[in-house]
């Protein structure tokens, strides 16, 4: 047994939005942090790409040599907030391999390499914490891995990407179209210069992989997550959603799928979806995040708050830092990876959901019944049909009961061949209805 | 260093709503629990008051001798779900004093004796977990003690009593008065035969003490919590609240109060309060619970779910059981009591809040200005006044800006002496407005 640490040496990798806030909190709240940990946190160094200009921290702390910083014998705990994958992966592995605790906010990395990182942590009995990787300041990882450790989670559904939620909320509110709203989000700092990772759902998919892994005790990587982004959502979709008592949200959904023979699989998927206005996720607007968890005994829980931003994300990082540092002082270790269930991934084609189909049709008698017949033909049961507009603006808006992706795709293909269906303009799922 | 446990022996004290669900989960989910813990959970015995009839568990597990059960050398972990104070206190102390881990859902006990229990746990390096004591299945204790361990919590405000929330929601919805609604709640199983602990705010005050203790790293007991119940709320209050764009909720509020000279104190208080309809707590209805946490870096977080009931509460208990059992297997210990800040309690008289005052007045000219003058006289600034009804039904509904309890009490006393004020029928606080 090693001696308990008298001080905890910390290395911070990265001094961007989150890194600067982490450093600020460590310096400003030193007395409180020491009382909570039982030993002082001492900042050993901050790895940056370039040392230039005033970064608001003593220049002596800055280094461009992250490898050497991580390797310092007086560093006990490494905070990784660089982003990217290969560089942080190597640094984190180096830290874990020498028994140092690691706190990271890097969802893209975790969604690919949690297994590898967790094995390194296991070998050296080191801590690997990542509360900040999903939903910023909102405690989600800890509730799932600890508070619900004695329960059986059946579903996790969340709004975990602030950029897309800002865009969809704004489109819903203003009636503006996607590209104008994206441009506005960029001007306001809610969307990056290259918004692909957000608007195409890659960020939400990485978070879905992390959530599915911990909720179902199964390794799920980003590649296992079915993914659709929001770039094809039109103002017409928002309008149609409103007429159906819904709004549109980009959801990250992780679900336990139980076959008739009892076999369990995991479905992890990200797509824009209609959500009924009375569902708790419907009123999560702007850059806010929320995660709804459904567990066998706990029932439905919801966690809500700021999902991004320097200070909120740093709050989550610092919670992990205090826990990892306490373990260094008191002995013991935080929760390990739990992947014993090793469930298979259910392909998206087999997941039944409700659908909304919006199509432009010829304005003549019999169209509705012919379209309805086509749905019936493919075994897709219709819940409601709404006929709107007239002449060349005539539209049919169909909401189905639960159907598989496969059955729906075949229906849509068949509808496209009907001469009185000018175009199937949108197909979106509908989630969160009781039906 | 002791050997890691090959099995974890569990004693359950109490076989009521929560206890039976705990026992059910331990028996039904044995394989999953073993995988998550790293060793099987073995139920050593269940302490009950009387062994009679079919309790749905093997009779051999039942015992009326709780002391001997706790003392058994093959019991590593004690789950206390008896309720009451003196009996569980002695049993929990006996368990902790012999180094056993304890999981309890007993808010009344914790609100009085956390200090004593935590010291016993500390001495023997034992775990004391109590996630289920506040807000049932909703993770609140763990987020506050762990996720926010690196942040600075400024306020916790919650709806943490299902009975009173059911009654207030029903009064708001139906317009019925308090006593009829309480009777209905009793018939539906939402209120106990003696509802005092719930409707007079004792239960909510115990939870406020626990929340304040962990949020502010200070020992706060039930006696430190200012408390008003809901039994004086009338249908007229709900109606007036509605006309002001509010509803009425029983809130448990814990707040960091900072004086001008920087001195910090803690305010913990429970009272029915007007809450604006656009506040997230306003839409928490029926038997649901929710807790809003405001922290310096995290911003505003909200946790929502089922705050009571056998299975939801057992979910929280079992999360603690798995964590405590893991610590027995892996070494290490969960979070300890943190009371280093030792802040003083701020008396309710010094806490400024907004107020709603409803009074019956004579229907004649000049009343409004005379009443307004009386508020001004005592330094209480008025936000809005609404005059309703006429003749003997004439009323004034005043909403103030922030004022101290002391200033408001003096104002109300003075109003009572005015000959054209027939009666001051209600005085309630208003919380959660941005003003």
From TrEMBL, chains A, B:
Coiled coil, from the record: none
Keywords, ordered alphabetically: Amino-acid biosynthesis, Methionine biosynthesis, NADP, Oxidoreductase, Sodium, Threonine biosynthesis
EC number(s) on file: 1.1.1.3
Domain spans labelled ACT: 356-432
Broad EC category: oxidoreductase
Pathway it works in: Amino-acid biosynthesis; L-methionine biosynthesis via de novo pathway; L-homoserine from L-aspartate: step 3/3; Amino-acid biosynthesis; L-threonine biosynthesis; L-threonine from L-aspartate: step 3/5
Cofactor section: a metal cation
Record InterPro entries: ACT-like_dom_sf, ACT_dom, Asp/hSer_DH_NAD-bd, HDH, HDH_cat, HDH_CS, NAD(P)-bd_dom_sf
Catalytic activity reported: L-homoserine + NADP(+) = L-aspartate 4-semialdehyde + NADPH + H(+); L-homoserine + NAD(+) = L-aspartate 4-semialdehyde + NADH + H(+)
One family name in Pfam for this protein: NAD_binding_3
GO MF entries: homoserine dehydrogenase activity
Protein's job: Catalyzes the conversion of L-aspartate-beta-semialdehyde (L-Asa) to L-homoserine (L-Hse), the third step in the biosynthesis of threonine and methionine from aspartate.
Family designation: Belongs to the homoserine dehydrogenase family.
Full protein name: Homoserine dehydrogenase
């Amino acid at each position: 047994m090693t001696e308990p640490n008298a001080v905890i040496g910390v290395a911070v990798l990265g001094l961007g939005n989150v890194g600067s806030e982490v450093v600020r909190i460590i310096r400003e709240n030193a007395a409180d942090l020491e009382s909570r940990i039982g030993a002082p946190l001492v900042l050993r160094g901050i790895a940056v790409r370039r040392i230039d200009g005033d970064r608001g921290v003593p220049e002596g702390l800055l280094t461009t040599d992250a490898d050497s910083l991580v390797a310092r014998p007086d560093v006990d705990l490494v905070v990784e907030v660089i982003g990217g994958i290969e560089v942080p992966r190597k640094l984190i592995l180096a830290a874990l391999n020498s028994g140092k605790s690691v706190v990271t906010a890097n969802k893209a990395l975790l969604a690919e390499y949690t297994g590898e990182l967790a094995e390194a942590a296991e070998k050296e009995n080191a801590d690997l914490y990542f509360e900040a990787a999903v939903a910023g300041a909102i405690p989600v990882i800890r509730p799932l891995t600890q508070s619900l450790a004695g329960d059986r989670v059946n579903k996790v559904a969340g709004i975990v990407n602030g950029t897309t939620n800002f865009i969809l909320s704004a489109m819903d509110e203003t009636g503006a179209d996607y590209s104008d709203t994206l441009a506005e989000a960029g001007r306001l700092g809610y969307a990056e210069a290259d918004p692909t990772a957000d608007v195409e759902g890659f960020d939400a998919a990485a978070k879905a992989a992390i959530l599915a892994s911990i909720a179902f005790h199964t390794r799920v990587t980003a590649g296992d997550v079915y993914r659709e982004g929001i770039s094809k959502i039109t103002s017409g979709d928002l309008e149609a959603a409103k007429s159906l008592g819904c709004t549109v949200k980009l959801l990250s959904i992780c679900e336990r799928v139980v076959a008739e023979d009892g076999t369990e699989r995991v479905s992890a998927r990200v797509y824009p979806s209609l959500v009924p206005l009375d569902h708790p996720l419907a009123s999560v607007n702007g850059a806010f995040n929320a995660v709804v968890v459904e567990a066998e005994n706990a029932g439905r829980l919801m966690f809500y708050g700021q999902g991004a931003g320097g200070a909120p994300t740093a709050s989550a990082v610092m919670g992990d830092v205090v826990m990892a540092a306490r373990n260094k002082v008191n002995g013991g270790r935080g929760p390990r990876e739990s992947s014993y269930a090793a469930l298979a991934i259910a392909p998206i084609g087999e997941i039944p959901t409700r659908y909304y189909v919006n199509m432009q049709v010829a304005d003549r008698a019999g169209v509705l019944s012919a379209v309805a017949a086509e749905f019936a033909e493919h075994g897709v049961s219709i819940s409601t049909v709404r006929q709107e507009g007239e002449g060349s603006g005539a539209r049919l808006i169909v909401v189905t009961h639960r159907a598989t992706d496969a059955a729906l795709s075949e229906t849509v293909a068949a509808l496209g061949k009907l001469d009185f269906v000018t175009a199937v303009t949108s197909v979106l799922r509908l989630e969160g209805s009781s039906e």
